[in-house]
Amino acid sequence: MKKLFILFVSVTAIKAASAQSVLLESAEDSNTSNLRYELSTGLNANTITSNGNSLLAAAALKNDTATVKMLLQYRANPDAQDAAGNTAMMLASLKGNTAAVKMLLAAGADTDKTNCMHATALIFAATFGHNDIVALLVQYNANRNTKDNLGYTAMDYARGQEYTSIVSMLTK
Known about the structure:
about 0% strand; mainly alpha; single chain; Serine Threonine Protein Phosphatase 5, Tetratricopeptide repeat; disordered N terminus
C-alpha cells in the first residue's frame, strides 16, 4: 500500500511539474489560448519563471498586455517581486506600457513598492520619459519624494534627462 501511495504521489508530482512547464511556456510565448486553458484547470497564476520573474512581471517586460490582463483575471499578485525586487508595475513603467500600468493600478498594485535599489515605478517612468505613466502614477498618489540607493528621486532623473513635461508634473 505504501509503495502504491509513493507511486501515486510521484505521478502526481510529475504531472504537476509538466503542467507548470506548459504554463510557463504558454506565458513566455504569449500563447494566450494555451495559457487560458492551463489557468482554467487550476494552475497558479503566481508561478515563478526559471529566471525568477512572476508570470505577470514577465508579461509586463514583454509588453504583452493580453497576458497581463489574463493573469490579473486569474488573480496573479500585482505586487509580486522578483529576486531584485522588481514588480510588474516597475517593468511596465520601464517599458512604457501604459495599458498594463492601468490594469495593474486597477488591480490594486502598490505604486510605492521599491526594488533592491530602492527604485519605484515612478522613478522608472520618469527616468525613461514615459509622460503618460508618470501622470497616472501621480494621479494614484505615488510618492514623489522616494529616493533610490543613489539618493535620487524621480524628479532628479527627469531633470537629468531634461524631460521638462515630467518635471512640471512632478512639481505640481
